[in-house]
Amino acid sequence: MSDQIAFIGGGNMAYALAIGLLRTESPPNVIVADPIASQRDRFTNSEINTTSNNKRAVSGADVIVLAVKPKIVRSVALEIAPLITDQLVLSIAAGIPLHALNAWFGETASIVRCMPNTPALIGAGISGLVRNMRTSDIQAELAHRILGCAGEVLWFEEEADLDAVTAISGSGPAYIFYLIEAMIRAAIELGLTPETARKLTLDTVLGGAKMAINSDDDPETLRRNVTSPGGTTERAVAVFDHESMNETIVRAITEAHKRSIELSHEADNDV
Q: Which of 135, 153, 194, 228 could form a disulfide with 131 if both were Cys (CB 3.0 to 4.6 A apart)?
């Protein structure tokens, strides 16, 4: 692992990654820069240094992790760009394309763009990564190890694929939460207590996900295996089909994909 990693921004994702790095076999030195004192205070009881000065954090760092809101990436990048030589810049800012980062940091900068998702906060995330042509294999491996502290990592050759990653895994947890909300509501309306409704729903979703992960059967086969002819599941699925639930989900994800592309184009206006 790299000797020193600087996080610009101390939000939830930065916190998850920084704490995860401390748990590795050979933890690096980590410094977090954030102008908000309450954000810095979260790291007080750890071995992580903090500062309100971005340039101070970047000075001496081998890797710079951009973990700020997309709307301020440009200003932050332009601020620290003069200090970037051969360091790796790892951006986890949503919707900021590589060509914009290349323009702000300079064409000689080594940059990896990453799309993580919120389960990374509990070490159960999955991140999509793409690198620019300047990034070496060693630097790519370093980025992989950093994001690996928060879950699984997938690399993509084409940056456009990150729009699909955003629509599936980036926004995906919200789709699952939406389903969970509806199941809990239904359970309560059927007379169960909120506590029981929550327990039944969450354990069912967790168990179903584990089966899908560990089974050799695809999800359609698994669904058919628990759908007895004339039974309760068949009737429920018939309602889903009547309401075109499958098509609705696909359409919703397609809209998320379109919005991801739009956000990238909006970032183009700042280049």
A: 135
